[in-house]
Each structure stands twice: as C-alpha cells, then as structure tokens.
Amino acid sequence: MNEFNTEMLFEKSELIPAIIQDSKTLQVLMLGYMNKESLNKSLESGLCTFFSRSRQKLWLKGETSGNFINIDEIFYDCENNSLLIKATPKGPACHTGNTSCFYKKL
User: Fold this and answer.
1) In this predicted model, what pLDDT tens digit does every residue of 76-100 receive, in sequence order?
2) Domain ranges within the chain, ordered by starting residue
3) C-alpha span between 69 and 89 (Å, rounded)
C-alpha cells in the first residue's frame, strides 16, 4: 500500500463509506463504513476491516465466516470523503451467502 496521510479523509466525518469491488469481475460486492482506526488496520493487514455502526466497534470482514476480503488497491474520491476498494474476496461477500450484497432489484 502507498504511504498516505489518511487524516484528510476524516476531516468532515468520523465515518466514510467504502465500496468494495471485485478486482477481477468488477462486480460491486458490498458497502461498509470505515473510521481512522479501521482504515489503518486495513492498510496494515491487507484485509478489509470496517467500523460496525450497529455494534459500535471494529469488524474484520470474514472473522466469523472465513470470507475475508483481501485488499488489492484503494482509491479515494475527488472530495476525499469515500473509498473504492478493489479486492479479492475469499468467498461470498454477503452474509446471506450471495456473492454480492447487491442482489435485490427494485
């Protein structure tokens, strides 16, 4: 991972959305939220770690299920307030067993 000062990403909010996209298929897998600590843990470990808004604590994706998400690249948007994480999933991203959390059509 590139050396980068993550502080600027959190100037407006303590949590930022992180879109997870499969590096190979380009399918959007899920949306999670990160705080400074979860982003730093993700950068250190190479595994997606989020901040759970419902449980108010860090959440290593795959810790329970084994369906870890390995980070390949991280991009930030033009307003420095959201992330796109290109990644390689080690199983379904969704807790329902679906490849993606985005499987319900309006």
Assistant:
1) 999 999 999 999 999 999 999 999 9
2) 15-89
3) 4
